[in-house]
């Protein structure tokens, strides 16, 4: 009589294990709307005060990737679970340094060096923008970039005068803020605004 129920008991425990596995996957990936780097690091998003250099990044479950190389001031590469992805930073444009068809732009080297200083070998959170394409025509991921300490990389490049505000076809989420920040940097003649004509 007991042998008759063994398949049902085994099936029940198998089904239970499957349900718990699915719940675990949904829980661990549901809060990471873009990315992962081994163990998630927690960050609290803040849309009103863009640049934050505080410890509040330890409160919400966001996932980070390691920057493995910096191409120039607005492009870098990350390791996404063993896959190398190139990221093009949304909302900013830095002077050209790597296009063989164009000369190196004024303040391009400085922008590249500053981006390298901020990003190389650091953990970054990549934020998508549903008003923009996921990738550009070159296959690069289009993202906003947050450092582990809460610094908003896109904004920092604009504020310090290493980048100009850049809109590609459609308005983007931070466009109003970025435009204002770039204008403030231009008025103060910071970075490229004071060095380039």
Topology:
Layout: H1 2-30, E1 41-42, E2 61-62, E3 65-72, E4 75-80, E5 83-89, E6 92-93, H2 108-119, E7 123-127, E8 141-147, H3 153-159, E9 164-165, H4 175-187, H5 192-195
Parallel strand pairs: 5-8
Antiparallel strand pairs: 1-2, 3-4, 3-7, 4-5, 6-9, 7-8
Summarize the structure in words:
The chain is of the alpha+beta class and 197 residues long. It is 33% helix and 21% strand. It contains five helices and nine strands. It has helices at 2-30, 108-119, 153-159, 175-187, 192-195; strands at residues 41-42, 61-62, 65-72, 75-80, 83-89, 92-93, 123-127, 141-147, 164-165. The strands form three sheets. The chain has a five-stranded mixed β-barrel. α3 runs parallel beside α4. The longest helix has 29 residues, at 2-30. Mean pLDDT is 81; it is low at 22-49 and 52-57.
Helix content: 25-40%
CATH topology of the largest domain: OB fold (Dihydrolipoamide Acetyltransferase, E2P)
**CATH C-level category of the largest domain:** Mainly Beta
Largest sheet: 5 strands, mixed, barrel
The percent range for strand residues is 15-25%
Mean pLDDT: 81
Relevant terms:
five-stranded mixed beta barrel, 2 domains, OB fold (Dihydrolipoamide Acetyltransferase, E2P), alpha+beta, 21% strand, 5 helices
Summarize this entry quickly.
The chain is α+β, with helices and mostly antiparallel strands. The chain is built from five helices and nine strands; from the N terminus they run αββββββαββαβαα. The chain has helices spanning about 1-30, 110-120, 155-160, 175-185, 190-195, and strands spanning about 40, 60, 65-70, 75-80, 85-90, 90-95, 125, 140-145, 165.
